[in-house]
Amino acid sequence: MNHINHIRNMYHTKYLISGKTNILPQKNIYQKLILRNLGILSANTKKNILTKRYKFTVAKTVDNKEIVKEHKYEFGLHNFSNVNLYTSRTHTCNQLRTEDCGKSVILCGWVEYIRLNRFIILRDGYGSTQLIIPENASAELYDLVDKIPLESVLMCYGSVKLRPINEINKNQATGMIEVIVDKLQLLNAVDTKLPFQLRKFNKANESLRLKYRYVDLRYPEMQYNLRLRSKLLMKMRQFLIDHREFVEVETPTLFKKTHGGAQEFIVPTHEKGKCYSLVQSPQQLKQMLMVGSIDRYFQVAKCYRDEGAKSDRQPEFTQLDIEMSFTDQNGVMLLIEELLSFIWPSELGKINTPFLRMSYEEAMLTYGSDKPDIGCSTKISNWTKYMSNASNEVFALVLKNSENKLTKKQENYLKTLISTNYPDVKFSLLNIKSIKTFKENLLKIFNGIDAVAVLDDDNISEHDLVAIACGSKYKA
Asked: Once rounded to an integer, what is the mean pLDDT over residues 395-416?
């Protein structure tokens, strides 16, 4: 890249260069010092990248030292992070810290709050910063602030200053500093009332937020979610391609109609009587890739399913789709463990591997579900071993300290539900008022059961509620 060029009429117009450690010639050492004092040039000049321009003048003091007399924002050098490349700002609203005090900065964002016509909270997708209108500001500046609607888009030119100790906001990343405003530029004013205000408290209902999603996306948690999603997708690709040599292949979303599974979205064509179908998943396509020797495939795939409106169903969703040849169940499980460990956000702490593994049979017999909540301490017990002459399986669920928690109406509803759907299953509910009564009732239901062993092994005590089912293995 070229070196910084010329000085004209006591104005130094500097253009930022990257790739050279010695950006300015040695004879212009004083120019480097001036730029660094302005916060325009970093001591580590390798980080400076062609972006912004500043304009400033140089004057001499009585002791013949070079000082900056004035500077403008139009030209020059600045030490920018990558997030500020190709933009009009010098920092985001979440970047400024105490070490930036004295720097001239440019911020862009949305007006979150205005107080006393002097204090402005400016927010962007990264955070927020407090702006201060100085007491000696022009009447035009005060008049502009007075007329700015909330959520309007501003560009602020100013300098960073340390906040007074009693005004430090420990709950804000930039709470140690504030920006003294030199100039405000209203980029886009809100000309109509917003459908809802962006407040942490008293949020709008979900349907209204979804209707005006572009406004809802300004919430910090929505910004966090989308940015985290983007980073996770990037790390997935990094792990699968760079570390495991998978091939990312984009398979068609327009495909022929397939039988089975969910109902599909039909896409008409210009040919009469012919149509496409939006894919439910890339299942058939990725299997053809395996046939074609693409033995390690993945893609971040869009899937479409014309299902009913359920809380856990959407007509369009994204999934990480993976397929491998010459592998087995353990190989797939190991890949998923390693992938999740690699992409897991550091702020959530490290995840423990290997993951707990459970067979389908164990899940059904212990939790009664193929999607068990392993955090639940209440598990199904198999009482068949306590039966002396069992022709069917017997299972029980002991709910501690739950005696009389169910009303008679609820008990009858539960019994009716089970008898209707599983007529071959014998179902009983026992509220344990006393251990003696429980033993007697248990022997009435199951002749030959070892009631003492049941009490000891399942730690059953008074005031518990016990649900018992007798029938074929999986139905019970």
From this structure: 86
Burial (CB < 10 A; 0-12, 13-18, 19+), residue 380, is middle
Evaluate whether 186 touches 144 at the Cβ level (below 8 Å): yes
What token pair was written down for 194? Answer: 């917003």
CB 432 within 8 A of CB 466: yes
Distance CA 316, CA 302 (A): 7
Is residue 430 a contact partner of residue 441, using CB atoms and an 8 Å limit?
yes
Note the pLDDT tens digit of each residue in 221-267: 999 999 999 999 999 999 999 999 999 999 999 999 888 778 999 99
Please report the pLDDT score of residue 160 as a whole number.
Answer: 97
Residue 224: is it exposed, middle or buried by C-beta count within 10 angstroms (0-12/13-18/19+)?
A: exposed
Question: How far apart, in whole angstroms, are the C-alpha atoms of residue 168 and residue 422?
Answer: 65
The pTM assigned to this predicted structure is 0.74
pLDDT of amino acid 404: 76
The Cα-based distances of 450 to 130, 388, 464 in angstroms read: 73, 8, 19
pLDDT in tens, 53-102: 434 444 444 455 444 344 444 433 444 578 999 999 999 999 999 999 99
Contacts of 276 (CB under 8 A, 6+ apart): 254, 255, 256, 266, 267, 269
Amino acid at residue number 154: L
Structure tokens at 354: 């290997």
The H or E element that residue 154 is part of is strand 153-162
Q: Which residues pair with 11 in a beta bridge?
A: 8, 57
Please, which residues have CB within 8 angstroms of residue 296's CB and are 6 or more apart in sequence?
A: 244, 245, 246, 247, 324, 325
pLDDT tens, 1-42?
Answer: 333 333 333 333 333 333 333 334 444 544 444 444 444 444
What are the chain's domains? 7-80 (no CATH), 91-188 (2.40.50.140), 249-322 (no CATH), 360-471 (3.30.1360.30)
CA gap 59, 63 in Å, rounded: 11
